[in-house]
Specification:
Mean pLDDT: 86
Distance between the termini: 81 Å
Radius of gyration: 26 Å
Shape: rod-shaped
Oligomer: single chain
Structural class: mainly beta
Largest sheet: 5 strands, antiparallel
């Protein structure tokens, strides 16, 4: 059997890669070849592509559907906090932000920084492995 091509096609084909292909240009009778595919997502979400092997067989091409899900290494929820109006010189009730490690490996947090025009009005009041509490502290 003559093999004329091994290709990846589809909306997310660039996020899958042929990592090995022993097919060459032909496969002897009652023999086989192996094709290996890896998944390297560039963005989060569901991804799909198709591995297509074109050859001289009467049922050519043969296709394999590929799917994978890209995940971000870490996520924070909620993505924003809104505090109610706060009397000057008082401190609000803390609000919680959850940091989630989406990987199997340990995630190291190197720093937590409050930034922006009014960063001095906010205080990091406590942290645990997964949760960060922020308060508004209006001291002006």
């Amino acid at each position: 059997m003559t093999v004329s091509g091994v290709t990846l096609k589809g909306a997310n084909a660039s996020e899958f890669e042929l990592s090995a292909n022993t097919c060459g240009s032909s496969i002897n009778g009652h023999s086989f070849c192996k094709v290996s595919v890896t998944f390297a997502p560039m963005t989060a979400g569901s991804k799909s592509a198709t591995l297509t092997i074109s050859d001289s067989a009467n049922n050519s091409p043969q296709s394999v559907s590929l799917t994978g899900t890209g995940i971000v290494p870490a996520s924070i929820t909620p993505s924003s906090l809104t505090f109610a109006a706060q009397k000057i010189g008082t401190t609000s009730t803390p609000k919680k932000i959850t940091v989630k490690n989406n990987l199997k490996a340990t995630l190291s947090i190197s720093s937590i920084i409050l930034a922006g025009a009014n960063a001095g009005d906010f205080v990091q009041s406590a942290t645990t492995c997964e949760q960060l509490w922020l308060q508004i502290q209006v001291a002006r």
